[in-house]
Amino acid sequence: MRLSLILILIATLSIAIQAYESSGGGNYGSDYGGYKDTVPEQIHIAFGEKLGDVTVTWATRKVSTSKVYYGKDRKKMDDNEGGDCKKWELGNAMGLQYIHKVKLTGLDPNSTYHYYVESTGAVSNVFTFTTMPAGNDWSPRLIVYGDMGRHGGEPTLNSLISQVRSGYPNAIIHAGDFAYDLDSDGGVNGDAYMNRIQPIAGNMPYMTCIGNHEDNYAFSNYINRFFMPGDSQNMWYSWNMGPIHFVAYSTEVYFTDSLIYTKERQIEWLQDDLTKANKNRDEQPWIIAYGHRP
Questions:
Q1: pTM for this entry
Q2: Distance between CA 268 and CA 284 in Å, rounded?
Q3: Three-class SS of 206-240
Q4: Distance (Å, rounded) from C-alpha 118 to C-alpha 244?
């Protein structure tokens, strides 16, 4: 089987992240329609557990409802799904503390969907994504990079946005180190970073793994800002795309003293995951693992 996996590797990437202080994260102008505290910011998506599942995540200043409106017709987004809103403060004293998560399930494969999010009357702009094709007789295309900071690298950011708008890649993999750092300035730096990558991550599944710059506050910024498949709070997980079984693992279990995310737990999970993956080589003959440190 021919596999054409396009990996755009960008090493030690530093991208300018400027706070959208006057525009509510780029979703609104100066008029918030009376809903300034519930304006959705930092909107991004990721693949879910199954083919046709996508998780939508965003943040607000105050507690509010969590709803996604979506459909294949941009002028008729009649389907909707509700979700959860939770408060998160650890390592985020000054940032937006209400995180929203909505799971879209049963989406048609290889189909383009439009969506917007709503939090207690405040709505976002419309975003667009395409679900992955079914089966394994196709060649995935991905953008893969790590070490993306808040400052510098405007031309690279524009190039990434252009690639996403072209629809060429099927997904993005960010292999650790976000914003330098997500928890800096009480979480404000992380908010600004997430808003700036919104044109990318709001329109393309944004799959992540943890890096050493996410270690602070028991990984709380990484755990709460992203939602990957599985039940390990993004620390390690796997997902399938066409003929590939992807394995995201934590290199940080070897450098931190966490009592929860230990190398023993990860190894146990990894052995079980690879045992199952090896039995499924007819469907996913390729196994590709990624982590932050070599």
A1: 0.89
A2: 21
A3: EEEECCHHHCHHHHHHHHHHCCCCCCCCCCCEEEE
A4: 34
